[in-house]
């Protein structure tokens, strides 16, 4: 569905050098990125601000032309076949709307139908389906400018999907949404992928979106693909220490177990920090040998913590060896 091979995108930046003199320099936003996305996949694209995510998405949708390397989406070269590609893909930018501000949502969607030349009967059926799934009914006749952010986002999703695209590209679709709207949008995307088989590429800073929706995540950092694989592997490779919360039969001094540090003691409860290399079963056995243990819980680092460590460059894995994807690109 998507094939990106060794893609580089540089921008020419003009900088002041003295009072009047300007110098032109080349700045690389994307530096040799390669990946494929197979039909029916749901992939999350993560990365700190300025990492190159939007530049990558813009190359996939044909808004930008790569400086070098090749991009193929649905078998087409996006920069040269933008219109043909638009018929087969849907794009939603969370910060911008494609709807007509002054028109009621229903009329905006009717205009989208004309743009994509969707047949009237197919449009009616599709609109009815999207209205039910996205709960658009109560505000279909409201002008777009009067819609709340969550309602507008649902309208934008409907607009991007009216022509039943094979691929949906989303840039921050849940930004600024409250928990209920987020849940509606996430639930909708999940069904779209599972039931319709729509391939989805989702860019977000919201790790809740990724955890809930994406079996595969790609992390772009300083223009390079730093990770490509599942969240569990990311947690295992880049995750920080695990924490063992132990409740002893009675309060006491910090326990002594080789290779483990006690972070906190509160009455009979103690928080033990385990480095990634420590074997939790051995630690528990050592503890049980010398203490009466009432309860025990092992806490993995939260995905926020894992990703923050990555962004800060504290990763333990070596980038540059992204996971092989089994699905073939087309
Ligand atoms: N038109 C442009 N001209 C010059 N530099 C640009 C242009 N567009 C992007 N850049 C630079 O390229 C780099 C990558 O930007 P990009 O917008 O792709 O990042 P991003 O990962 O989407 O960030 P964010 O999470 O903040 O949206 C940044 O350093 C940015 O300043």
UniProtKB/TrEMBL annotation:
The keyword Transport applies. Transmembrane segments: none annotated. GO terms for biological process: response to antibiotic. One of its GO terms (molecular function) is ATP binding. The gene is btuD_27. It is a peripheral membrane protein. This is Vitamin B12 import ATP-binding protein BtuD. Its main location: membrane. Coiled coil: none annotated. Keywords: Antibiotic resistance, ATP-binding, Nucleotide-binding, Transport. It is found in: Cell membrane.
